């Protein structure tokens, strides 16, 4: 349904950059130094018109739009009937786009999502809103999007076609503060070369495409590289388009700033510079980790930081003044002295402000959650208050599970954004804190003295659990919690273009069970993604679930019944795969625990029986995943290879693509962290891994010896895991079978195994 808009109109709509002067007068609570989109109203109007054309095609002429900026700080929009058409006015391009999408959702029951679009049979003429019009107000000033990891886990191989779609989706969902990290290596390269670094120095510094996020944060360096020059240049060109489009819609793209991590060569070039070597990150050793941190009080720190901002402003024709930098993400500072931390923090900000006096430092608050033993109140206070009030904006990154604003008294007065993180590594697996997401942002915002200024979504990877994001994105534009029963019913209706009682029941059941984790914190990641993606072992203990497991069976039954009456449309096909995938994962888990029990009972024939169920199930898992491109590893690899300009580059990108979702590091340093329920990955990696495990168990029983995990681990690494990352077998990119047919077959075959 997406139409391509003539490129010349896009160019006509190019942004005009004026340097917006910030008001320095506001201070105290609830204030973030004001930042406004500096793009003219008529540019935004044209950009949002073009967006609506991409969604509705010729019928876009039935929607008249107008952007009218207002002095109010929060976006709002108004929809009214205008002859036989619809007119939408709003305070920004994003406000108009959000209102348009909300209209599509609630008046036309349509959906545009990561998980497919449902834009079938849009009513003729467009339904009227009430005669008094429909007014839509944002509850908060900012709606933020992206974790610094999202660019590596999800958008790393995207071309402009895919980016354009995502930016449209952002606007349609009200996002006005997106992270814009693409292409920064080209600019770092210029800065470091001016400082004397050679190409070789930088080859050892930049990580490969699929690992850039962690290279940028100083967690690792060099792994997955060397980063080709063609990559740096083409990504920079892509970033130009991304920024131009974001700005034209009235968004404020968040650009990178300098956090202090430098190429090791800096110590050779500037022997007097004070640096420290960070400890190794995760299970990496110093070959690819232990990055050099330039000490913040060294004058070179501010110099590099401001050179970067300057170079970036030149390249992107100005700036939007908000910069992200994460100095101590998952890395412990060398000192917990409050003076040291305050100096470090101040240096990061000053390095931005030296060139851009209107700079605001946006920081992920993840460190406070990941290292609470280090980040106690005095340390946090020192870090956040060393920056002038309102010049720092903190992403409370994991608000639904581990909010940090309560223990920091709303970050000691610095503004923050309530973010739903929800996903790690882009893992699939149904999960959500639907009730918390629906309640907590409002309660937080309305608390006395709250410094919350926005809502956000900060998943490490996208393309999973769309329902949670659909809800969270509405939260930023509402003033009170939803009636979730009503909301879930509407979700099912718009997703399937149907008022189908079984489909509704499916989502009411899922919504009140697996998506309604009300416990404190976050369950073990392995419970969400399932054991089938983990390297098999005997030591995994069964953990408590946060939901009634019988609800899965009842949701599966309802969905299977619904399938007989739903149209064969993209969203139905997608969910046929997604729901089947989830159910098979749950069955796999129970087979696994049974198999381990039987092994402990030394019952060989039962181990064999469980083993054969499991391998058969994994084949069916691969089969259902093979029916939809969203779940095919072949597409992930093909997209990676498509960005290479020669065979060497293509092979490097393929290695990056394969390694990230499996070993995550040359030797399995973060093994299976970013696992995926994908076709081909299942058949060529998970399946043989389990087959070998079952064989080892059986052999142990036959010879009456203990299962030798050392032998198994080294065998599976040498023969399956590592070879998979280096292999170049071409995987299918086109589905062969029909998802709905296969989903029905699998349901009948396996349903009784799901208790
Ligand atoms: C860059 O910004 C200036 C104003 O600051 C504007 O005149 C010019 O058109 C812009 N160029 C592009 C390519 O957007
Ligand atoms: C972008 O990538 C997609 C595949 O992911 C492909 O279908 C599309 O043709 C590509 N667009 C361009 C302009 O190459
Ligand atoms: C912090 O910076 C100031 C001024 O640059 C310096 O005098 C002081 O020693 C630094 N404090 C620490 C603990 O590094
Ligand atoms: C905020 O403070 C006022 C006056 O101190 C009090 O009446 C009110 O109940 C408080 N509201 C909340 C949500 O704590
Ligand atoms: C809100 O701030 C005021 C003034 O700083 C203070 O007196 C009051 O105790 C605060 N209220 C809460 C609930 O923190
Ligand atoms: C919530 O919505 C459902 C479905 O529309 C409705 O039956 C119920 O009465 C609503 N509950 C409240 C408290 O409004
Ligand atoms: C989620 O669970 C809580 C606690 O059991 C319950 O109060 C709430 O109604 C549930 N929400 C939904 C949508 O089922
Ligand atoms: C294995 O268990 C089955 C029952 O599940 C039992 O019939 C059989 O005798 C057992 N075999 C051994 C060797 O214990
Ligand atoms: C460090 O990691 C690299 C890359 O995986 C490996 O080749 C090397 O042997 C490791 N060094 C040590 C001391 O373990
Ligand atoms: C387990 O396997 C390892 C590696 O093959 C071997 O060195 C070790 O002796 C084995 N352990 C036992 C108890 O057989």
From TrEMBL:
Residues 47-127 form the Alpha-N-acetylglucosaminidase N-terminal domain. Residues 1-25 form the signal peptide. Pfam families: NAGLU, NAGLU_C, NAGLU_N. It comes from the Eukaryota. Residues 487-749 form the Alpha-N-acetylglucosaminidase C-terminal domain. Residues 143-478 form the Alpha-N-acetylglucosaminidase tim-barrel domain. Keywords: Hydrolase, Signal. This is Alpha-N-acetylglucosaminidase. It comes from Clavelina lepadiformis.
């Amino acid at each position: 349904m997406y139409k391509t808009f003539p490129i010349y109109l896009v160019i006509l709509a190019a942004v005009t950059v004026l340097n917006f002067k910030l008001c320095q007068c506001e201070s105290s609570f609830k204030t973030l130094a004001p930042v406004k989109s500096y793009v003219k109203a008529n540019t935004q109007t044209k950009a949002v018109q073009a967006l609506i054309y991409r969604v509705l095609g010729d019928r876009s002429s039935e929607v008249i739009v107008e952007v009218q900026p207002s002095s109010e700080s929060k976006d709002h929009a108004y929809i009214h009937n205008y002859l036989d058409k619809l007119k939408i006015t709003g305070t920004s391009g994003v406000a108009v786009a959000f209102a348009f999408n909300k209209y599509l959702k609630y008046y036309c029951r349509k959906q545009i999502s990561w998980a497919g679009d449902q834009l079938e049979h849009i009513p003729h003429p467009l339904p009227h809103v009430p005669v008094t019009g429909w007014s839509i107000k944002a509850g908060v000033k900012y709606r933020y999007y992206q974790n610094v990891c999202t660019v590596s886990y999800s958008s790393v191989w995207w071309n402009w076609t895919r980016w354009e779609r995502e930016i449209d989706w952002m606007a349609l969902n009200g996002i006005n503060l997106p992270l814009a990290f693409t292409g920064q290596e080209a600019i770092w390269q210029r800065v470091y070369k001016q400082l004397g670094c050679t190409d070789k120095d930088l080859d050892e510094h930049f990580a490969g495409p699929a690992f850039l996020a962690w290279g940028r944060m100083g967690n690792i360096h060099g792994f997955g590289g060397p980063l080709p020059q063609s990559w740096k240049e083409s990504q920079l060109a892509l970033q130009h388009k991304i920024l131009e489009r974001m700005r034209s819609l009235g968004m404020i793209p968040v650009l990178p700033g300098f956090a202090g991590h430098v190429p090791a060569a800096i110590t050779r070039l500037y022997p007097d510079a004070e640096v420290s070597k960070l400890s190794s990150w995760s299970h990496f050793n110093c070959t690819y980790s232990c990055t050099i941190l330039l000490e913040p009080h060294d004058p070179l720190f501010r110099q590099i930081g401001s050179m970067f901002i300057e170079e970036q402003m030149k390249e992107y024709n100005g700036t939007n003044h908000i910069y992200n930098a994460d100095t101590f993400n998952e890395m412990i500072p060398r000192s917990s002295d409050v003076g040291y931390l305050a100096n470090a923090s101040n240096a990061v900000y000053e390095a931005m402000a030296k060139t851009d006096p209107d700079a605001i430092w946006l920081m992920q608050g993840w460190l406070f959650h990941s290292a609470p033993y280090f980040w106690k109140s005095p340390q946090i206070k020192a870090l956040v208050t060393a920056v002038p009030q309102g010049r720092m904006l903190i992403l409370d990154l994991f608000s639904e599970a581990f909010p940090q604003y309560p223990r920091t008294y709303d970050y000691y007065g610095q503004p923050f954004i309530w973010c739903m993180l929800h996903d790690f590594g882009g893992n699939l697996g149904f999960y959500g804190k639907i009730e918390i997401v629906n309640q907590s942002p409002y309660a937080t915002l309305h608390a006395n003295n709250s410094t919350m200024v926005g809502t956000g979504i900060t998943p490490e990877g996208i393309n999973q659990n769309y329902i949670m994001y659909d809800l969270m994105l509405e939260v930023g534009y509402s003033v009170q919690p939803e009636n979730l029963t009503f909301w879930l019913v509407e979700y099912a209706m718009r997703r399937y273009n149907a008022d189908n009682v079984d489909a509704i029941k499916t989502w009411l059941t899922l919504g009140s069970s697996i998506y309604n984790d009300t416990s404190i914190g976050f369950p073990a990641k392995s419970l969400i993604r399932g054991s089938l993606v983990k390297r098999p072992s005997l030591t995994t203990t069964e953990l408590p679930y946060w939901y009634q497991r019988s609800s899965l069976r009842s949701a599966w039954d309802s969905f299977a019944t619904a399938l007989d009456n739903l149209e064969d449309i993209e969203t139905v096909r997608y969910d046929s795969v997604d729901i089947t995938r989830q159910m098979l994962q749950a069955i796999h888990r129970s087979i696994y625990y049974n198999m381990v029990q039987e092994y402990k009972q030394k019952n060989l024939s039962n181990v064999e029986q469980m083993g054969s169920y499991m391998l058969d199930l994994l084949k069916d898992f691969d089969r259902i995943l093979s029916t939809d491109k969203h779940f095919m590893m072949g597409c992930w690899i093909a997209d990676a290879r498509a960005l290479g300009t020669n065979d060497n580059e293509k092979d490097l990108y393929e290695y990056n693509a394969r390694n990230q979702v499996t070993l995550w590091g040359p030797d399995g340093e973060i093994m299976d962290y970013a696992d995926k329920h994908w076709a081909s990955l299942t058949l060529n990696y998970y399946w043989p891994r389990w087959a070998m495990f079952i064989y080892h168990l059986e052999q142990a029983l036959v010879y009456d010896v203990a299962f030798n995990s050392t032998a198994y681990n080294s065998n599976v690494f040498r023969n399956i895991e590592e070879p998979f990352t280096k292999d170049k077998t071409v995987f299918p990119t086109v589905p062969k079978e029909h998802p709905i047919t296969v989903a029905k077959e699998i349901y009948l075959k396996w349903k009784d195994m799901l208790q």
